[in-house]
Design goal:
The protein has 107 residues and is of the alpha/beta class. The chain has a single domain, classed as Rossmann fold. Helices cover 47% and strands 24% of the residues. It has three helices and four strands, in the order βαβαβαβ. Strands 3-2-1-4 form a four-stranded parallel sheet, sandwiched between helices. It is globular.
């Protein structure tokens, strides 16, 4: 069986958590790689301190999603990516292509 790469977009909304739960129950198989992807909006005029704070919040959010995975499935292969972009949709598509994901789950 081939290892699939599944990307779940992480956002601080209940629908995103539901999408993660759905993918854990219906999509993930043993040995698959699950990528938790959080993209936060940043502008060129934003201060470095503000951008750092948004990145930290993104990692904390991704860690909370990882906790959901660990409480439901042991030994799940999980990676977390937190990145910034001024237009979220394009960055998500670029990351999915870069990872070579076979599935994208968005809540």
């Amino acid at each position: 069986m081939d290892v699939r790469k599944i990307v779940v977009v992480v956002e601080d909304v209940d629908v995103s958590r539901s999408a993660l739960q759905w993918s854990l129950s219906n999509l993930l198989r043993y040995g698959d790689l699950l990528t938790l992807l959080h993209v936060f909006s940043a502008t060129k005029s934003m201060s470095k301190k503000k951008a750092r704070m948004l990145r930290l919040q993104g990692y904390q959010l991704a860690l909370s999603f990882k906790e959901i995975c660990n409480s439901n499935f042991f030994n799940t292969n999980i990676e977390m990516i937190v990145t910034e972009e001024d237009r979220e949709g394009r960055k998500i598509v670029a990351m999915v292509q870069e990872i070579g994901a076979s599935a994208l789950v968005v809540g």
